[in-house]
Amino acid sequence: MLLTRPASMVLIWWTAIRPRTLSIAITPVVLGTALAWADASAKHWPALVAALVCALLIQIGTNLHNDVVDFERGTDRPDRIGPLRVTAAGWVSSNSMHRATYASFGLAVAIGVYLVAHGGWPIFLAGATSVLAGWAYSGGPRPISHTALGEAVVLMFFGWVAVAGSHWLQSGTPSLDAWLCGTVVGLPAAAVLLVNNYRDLEADVRSGRRTLAARLGRARACHLYAAMLLLPFGLILLLASRGRMGVLVTLSALPYCLRLAQQLRQASTGAALNTQLAATAKIGLILGALLSVGVFL
């Protein structure tokens, strides 16, 4: 699938890192930090900046690895209806993409050394498993992206690990509320992957990928998607009952989530589902931003 190659290398690599997915990495770090600061923890700005950069590098490395490995496996076929992949398009060689992948993960590990020195063994555990999961999403003999475990892994790492880990970096103490907040932003992040796999369902089945959407079928996948978008509001009420009444501001996003849940059933084209995917990532960002503000109110 050779397409006209842009003249700008910046544009090529900007496309490769999938900028629309990067908010999924940033949001939980900001939320976990906001929760710790709202609880009067000391503000460790270098730790926040390092955590943000590290999260972005892991996400970028995961995206680049997925781009090149899916091309090499033959998963990205000419009939692909999702966003363009630069290796399959012939814009970047496989060797260059592999080098960029290793550079992203390597820089994340280097920055992680500082984070471990600051946060101790819990941060080592969180960081090491995050990098491993980023590689295993597309790599190895049994990639996570080829199984029904993808959404659970996203919830774990873009929800619980990222929020609770960021809270720990600032406070040095565990927090049940951090795990609840992690679920609130982790579920929409998992819903992004569900939409991606819902869009690619037929192609995935043909190539032998047994994703969660492929196993559930379209009707049940729509039900699960709705649950992923609406369950966070029950958790917001639970957070409010625990004394964080300010988080009720997040309920203002409920109508948008209800509309998105209905739209997935109606989306019938690749373009509509790509729009749905972007909107789902956006609502995750909105929920995280509102919750980050709400914990201070």
Task: Calculate the mean pLDDT score and round it.
Answer: 94
Shape: globular
- Provide the gyration radius in Å: 19 Å
Distance between the termini: 52 Å
SS content category: mainly alpha
Biggest sheet architecture: none
Assembly category:
single chain
Low-pLDDT runs of 5+ residues are none
Number of beta strands: 0
Give a quick set of tags describing it.
297 residues, mainly alpha, 12 helices, 72% helix, globular
Q: Layout of helices and strands, plus pairs?
A:
Layout: H1 9-16, H2 23-38, H3 45-73, H4 94-119, H5 121-136, H6 150-171, H7 176-199, H8 201-206, H9 212-216, H10 218-241, H11 254-266, H12 270-294
Helix pairs in contact: 2-3, 2-6, 2-7, 2-12, 3-4, 3-5, 3-6, 4-5, 5-6, 6-7, 7-10, 7-12, 10-11, 11-12
Tell me about this structure.
- The longest helix is centred in the first third of the chain and has 29 residues, at 45-73.
- Helices cover 72% and strands 0% of the residues.
- It is built from twelve helices and no strands.
- It has 297 residues and is mostly helical.
What is shown here, in short?
With 297 residues, the protein is an all-alpha fold. Helices cover 72% and strands 0% of the residues.
